[in-house]
Write a structure and sequence with these properties.
By secondary structure, this protein is mainly α. It is built from 7 helices and no strands. The chain has one domain: NusB-like (N-utilizing Substance Protein B Homolog, Chain A, Orthogonal Bundle).
């Protein structure tokens, strides 16, 4: 399975974070991975998706703090859920996944925004992640 596909599955699961408590996430992940459409996923892929979704969900507060530090006038609570989830996932990859270069995380986030967000989503996501990337370099 491609990294992009794994990322999309992780995005779908992480999107649920604002609707379920952290304690309920494990059940939601198991339910999602048991759906007929996910039967074609290998056990290794399911394990990676599960682990990445759980890790990112557990770091939601930290990720939101970092996002809020650069999002002028658009704190996490005011952002669209799709854009916020994309930002959380990309920032998680930038901060905690050594296998994903910063530029790749940003580019993939913009691609997710094009696929799942509105017309302004790619530019919004790119702008916030650009500021976060600059902050990382300081």
């Amino acid at each position: 399975m491609t990294r992009r596909s794994l990322r999309e599955h992780t995005f779908v699961l992480l999107f649920q974070r604002d609707f379920y408590s952290l304690e309920e996430m494990e059940g939601q992940i198991a339910l999602y991975l048991s759906l007929e459409d996910q039967e074609k996923l290998g056990e290794e892929d399911k394990g990676e998706i599960r682990a990445r979704a759980k890790q990112a969900a557990e770091k939601t507060e930290l990720l939101d703090e970092r996002i809020n530090s650069v999002a002028e006038g658009w704190k996490a609570g005011r952002m669209g859920k799709v854009e916020l989830t994309i930002l959380r996932l990309a920032l998680f990859e930038i901060l905690f996944d050594e296998n994903v270069p910063q530029g790749v995380a940003i580019n993939e986030a913009v691609e997710l925004a094009k696929k799942f967000g509105g017309d302004d989503s790619p530019a919004f996501v790119n702008g916030i992640l650009g500021k976060l990337a600059a902050q990382q370099e300081d």
